[in-house]
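Dear Dr. V.,

Thank you for agreeing to look over these. As mentioned in my earlier message, I'm a first-year student in the group and I'm still getting used to reading structure tokens, so any feedback on how I've presented them would be very welcome. I ran two proteins. I've put each sequence directly above its structure. The first is here:
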Amino acid sequence: MFSDVPQIARNWWMFALLGLICVATGIAAIVWPDITLLAIGIIFGIYLLVAAIFEILDAIFGPPGGRAISAILGIIALIAGIICIRRPGDSLLAIVLVVGIYLIAEGVIRLVRAFDVRDGRGWAIGLAALDIVVGIVILSWPGIGLVTLAVFFALTMLFRGVVAIVIGFKLRSLRHGEPPSVHTATMAT
């Protein structure tokens, strides 16, 4: 499995870029909590479309064991993203349902995937649990206000962004195919 790390690590910047986009989106939602439904629907729709692209690419080029799950999550994200972009201002309830269903589906799939990895399992379980909890809260409180939705959305995006940035820079250090201890020892001599 370690032999696959250099191939994945070459694209470390994609993780870091997605993380920066998530952090910027989270900060924007905190700074302007009264942001309009149109704006939050479009922002989340764009995020979902980017996430769908990453998941579909993982389904095509990723390891064979996780392709089906990536394809399912990619299709869910694609449909949810299209709904958010196409109908961002119709009703808060539609956006709340799309966001809640997506977060629960993604959380469950990420939780299942977390048990397939050894390194970073705690982070993966934490992110999955956060998605599930936020999704359940959003769905169980359909009258949720836009400000509350923006805060939940912001917290999820900030956490997701930090995790993606950390993963990106960890992958960057592994891009030459050496374990971190060997790389560090080589640099020290």
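The second protein is here, in the same arrangement:
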Amino acid sequence: MDWDKLRIFHAVADAGSFTHAGHELGLSQSAVSRQIGALEGELRVPLFHRHARGLILTEQGELLYRTAHDVFNKLASAKTRLMDSKDKPFGDLRVTTTIGLGSHWLTPRIAEFVELYPDINVQLLLVDRELDLSMREADVAIRLRRPVQPDLIQRKLFTVHNHVYASPEYLKAYGTPKTPEDLDHHKILTFGPPPAYLKDVNWLETYGRPADNPRKPVLRINNVYGLYEATRLGLGIASLPDYVVGRASDVVRLALDPEPEIPEFDTYFVYPEELKSSKRVLVFRDFFVAKAREWSF
């Protein structure tokens, strides 16, 4: 089987179209289409169903894709080990975490790491869904929960605490809530819809209320920075994580009675077993473990 055709097939299956795969490969759409047609001719089976909205793998295509994907993952792993056989850590390192944690805690600390290790090319992948490390969607992750996969190495960094905040302008206009009953007459801002592992993050909706009769938020935002900005601008009251608020003076922390059980999220540095000897991963881990010790509010 022609290796170059297999590489192009893998790219097309990932992209879902000849055009998008061509952009990734630096080839024209017609060149990609010809290579796929030639591969299908050699194998004497169709690999894709072609329709107006894109390409779908046939049953035979799925079989070939799974095999090719496994081969490319093993090659990427071998490349990592070869690169790490040198004394000085270098090469690509893809790091994933949530948008909020990545924007407010990780990104401000990256500059120092890049200065210390200029030969490591860091790529931050900030998404609120968890990328699959075993499928090499990323190399390492910082996650807001303990990982459940048995083949992942984990190191706890810190615990994320949440508190209730409002802007001084909002409190001046609507008063300061002190009890659950008070909150019933205030504007509540919430996050979401949250992923399953953050399902308790919107506890303000049910604090002091029956679970089947929650407060209705006036605004829900699927980005924690947007939630902070809405709070800062006086749109309402929100539960925000410490790493977003930091030492900002433009929002006020509120105290409620009875004291609510506010959810906390343990944060872990996570990477696959196959990268346990990677110098890039180890220096990145050690750097951010040290930064986690320094960080507290």
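From my reading of the second output: The chain has a mean pLDDT of 90. The radius of gyration is 24 Å. Does that match how you would interpret it?

Kind regards,
E.
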